[in-house]
Amino acid sequence: MNNKWRIIFTSLTASIMLAACGTSDADPEKDTTGNAIEEPAAPETDAEESTSSENEAEIETDTEVEASEDVMKDAVETTSDEQDYSMMVLPGYTLTSEEPGRDSLYLEEDSEMFMRIETMPKDEESYTFDELYENMGELLTASSDGETPIEITDETDLPQADDIKSVKGAVVDSTEGYFTGYVIEREDKLIRVTIYAKEDNEHIEDFKDMAATIK
């Protein structure tokens, strides 16, 4: 019996020692290397990308507004002789009455490049804003020998001012020339301007900025 228990006890002791060794080797908490597992960087979310894009768009818009204000700093307020409005006119341009109800703002170095200006009191209701825009499209089509105007959807390509209630525009490029039209709603009046040019150029931007000041 003593020999039997001695053999069993010896076997159990050996098994326990082997088990202890195995546990020590496998237990990660006993690792003394001190190397921490590095967590992967969190991927950028769609929300972060969207916020970044919105911020960039706001910065771009603010920059364009500041550039426009800087260009207009030398403009002079000018009152129409025939219509009930005033506007800021840049150096190198002249405002003149073309006929009753129509004025012309032209480039002094090339009078064939000009902007026709028409205004009407809102209380007369001869046209609604949408009707005036539709009529403007017909005018652009006729001026371009039948080409179909394309609506301007980028707000930065439209006259912008805090007191403009609504604005829409269209453009047509044809063999007859490059024509742009805007319909602007103010508190007391509707305004239609039509820009006539031989081709798209920097003066069209000037006309747009000056059109934003008509009131």
Q: What are the defining features of this structure?
A:
single chain; 215 residues; alpha+beta; seven-stranded antiparallel sheet; two-stranded antiparallel ribbon; 4 helices; 9 strands; globular; disordered N terminus
Break the fold down into its secondary structure elements and pairings.
Blueprint: H1 2-26, H2 46-71, E1 76-79, E2 86-89, E3 93-99, E4 102-107, E5 110-121, H3 129-143, E6 150-151, E7 166-174, E8 177-185, E9 189-197, H4 202-211
Give the spatial strand order of the biggest sheet. 3-4-5-9-8-7-6
Secondary structure: number of strands:
9
Number of helices: 4
Radius of gyration: 38 Å
Which band does the percent of strand residues land in? 25-35%
Mean pLDDT: 80
Instruction: Specify the biggest β-sheet.
Output: 7 strands, antiparallel
Report low-confidence residues grouped into runs of 5 or more: 1-10, 12-16, 18-37
Class from secondary-structure proportions = alpha+beta
Shape descriptor reads: globular
Roughly how many Å apart are the termini? 118 Å
Q: Helix and strand succession?
A: HHEEEEEHEEEEH
The share of residues in helices is 25-40%
